[in-house]
Amino acid sequence: MAGHHGHYWRFDLSLGRGEMRRVPQVVTRAYVGGVGLGIWLLHREAGWQHDPLSDAAPLVIAFGPLAGTPLTTSAKFVIVARSPLTGMACDALSSSHFAIAGKRLGVDAIVLVGRCPRPSTLRARARGRAGNIDAELVDPGVVDPRQTAVLSVGVAGEQRVRFANVRSDGRHAGRGGLGAVLGAKQLTGLAVEGHHETPLHDPARVDALADRLRLRTRGEATARYREIGTTGNVAAFARIGALPTFDFRGDALPGVEALSGEQLHETRRGERRACAQCSIGCEHRFAPRGAAPVRVEYESLFALGPLCGITDPDAVLRAAQRCDQLGLDTISCGATVAFAMECGERGLLRGVPSFGDAAGLLALIDEIAHRCGTGALLADGSRALARRLGPEALDFAPQVKGLELPGYEPRALQTMALGFAVGTRGADHNRSAAYELDFSERVDRLHGDARAARLALETEDRAALLDSLVLCKFVRRALRDPWADAAEMLCAVCGGDWHADVLRAAARRTVDARKAFNIRAGWTPADDTLPARMLREPLPAGPVAGARLSAERLQTMVRSYNLARGWSARGQLGPAKWKELLLDD
Amino acid sequence: MTRQLALLWCPPRPPALARDPAWLPWRGTTLLQHLCHVLAEAVDEVVVVAGRAQRVPPLAAPFALRRRLPTRARLHALAPAQRSLIVPCDMPQLDATRVRTCAGRRAVCDLREAAPSAGGTPPGHAHFARIRCGDDYLRAVREDSRAARAAGSDAAAPQARLEFVGRARRLAGTDAIAVPIGSLAQVLSHAPAPLALCRGDRVAAPFLVSLGGRDFIRDARAPVGPGERVIVLDSSAGG
Fold first, then answer.
1. C-beta of residue A2 within 8 angstroms of C-beta of residue A29
2. Contact B55 A447 (CB under 8 A)
3. Which CATH architecture fits B159-234?
4. CATH number of B4-131
């Protein structure tokens, strides 16, 4: 099938040997590629059976059928593994030239197992005909990690910090700590080089579709990403009561709009950049005083700013930069520090900075990455820290299934709250875009209900589609109908009969496969919830002060969601669902 | 002595109004809260009645909230064996004097059905006029404001505040401006060029409007009252 190479490369780091394995065409058709293929391979490698930081734990790097085509934003890859932070399935995406170079190895995915005998970089080069790859483990210094076709981990990954990222091209595959999985394998980097072009079924049609999509992504639908980026969320969220503050306590934080994209554009030197092969260019960089510009997104601003009670833009920009340099996930890092700050305030933890202590935050970031001092306690994430401190702390640790919440206040965005609760990756804003519903007249964002639950599912399916193709989610606003447009692209790239219904089924299957993995890894229905404090206390301040989300209401939504997915009310998959996943030989 | 109860009913959103009447601004508070205080002057107890999923402005003690479907039978069933008055919360001009006049005439007096012809008050009198559309509301606000000025108040003509966030702010070149009250379309038309925030009766697709940071609204026929904040956001806010 064009668009795919039909094989994946499995490399055992302990043995220093790799082999090509076939991807059955029926699997390609059922899962499309990217995240779908990645989670299928993780099942096949029995990833749920292994401690994520053990030698045997598999890690999958998967490419989509659109990688290597001229379609805008298609230079993306997916890393899939069992998360050391959550113990559940985790997929992390990033845009990078690595995606194009990796697919040019002549493979649809790379599976890494085992552990390098010493810290090493894996260098893989395609040789001759498809299926031949020369691979060697070299000393970390041999390959320059700033090269574009290199994946690497920072200090945090090497130290197995459970929210360490994997980076490439200055971008990060974050959430879930997959950098720690590579770190545990003593693999500091992966450099790839190949010459196998992505086979195209109808190159002229692909070019035409690429031109059309590029044109649309330069229009009104994506103007906001170009002009202000996600940093525009700070002021918007603050005005509607959806900006989390003080470890999700929700207290008022005067001056927080100093961190808004609008004000950063006015008060800081800024510049804009684009990821590999992207026509949108959403990346906005702002310079802290006396320093070079720093790439920053809303999530970094929220987590390292208001969540920690900090409103000084220079401090937050420096903290975001330091996280990037060390290879830390900014959301988990900021949220874990904010949690520690509240624990300190309550007398549960000593030696941590107070809310608003920017210098303390900066020092703690380094300690976390190096697992030293107080940072060593925080390096396993907020849930692990809470378990050490006792049940009182677990009540307000800002996490779902171990993954720290991103910057969407659940009580003010209750459809998103459901997305967090049922997310297979944990509290996640990239696998469920349920907030889109909250930002509309279609639901009552302060009173989640069963109808909202059914609508939320659609956004999750659409995310699974884009993550399987793989295309950037910001493109979705430039698509007329994501299902029909994606089918048109796949017909041109892969050939064959792709249509919207096939893709809807594939997206649902991908979500089912993630859930199936979690069930195998020990998930229980009790995991699909939010921190107890959020279900008990109303929001204390802001435009939606008094907003409340009860445990009963959330569970009603969870049940509706599960049933709409075709699962049992408690979220279990029936035999027919398991069979559809094609996990058996 | 028989106690007098008032059931203050929150009607659902009339399509031509495009907003919940309970939340409309009136004399510095919401219409619901205003009527709670009007009724409290005239009766012994005020109970607010709203639909199960209906959002209601926060109520201070001693006003209680009961959730019921707003059918006649259910509302009347709420009225106990004491004298009761059923009042919809979309009657901004109702005052305590009129309430006292109506109260006590019948065991259950339902102002939603017909204004009672008691105390010389003819049916359809302005005090019992209900708000059915944006124009009804805006007319009532303006008349109320004129009456206040005629009575010696130095209050200025009623204004709302138009705030810009995100891309809208960059295009507007300002944070916020004060604008006269009107329909949402009229309010948004004051945005500086090149911002074009409405298309027909709807807010233009790239933008999203929040009233006071609570409700999102796309229907540009909705009225905007005095002191309200109209926040213009990007429709792609979030990610």
1. no
2. yes
3. Roll (3.10)
4. 3.90.550.10
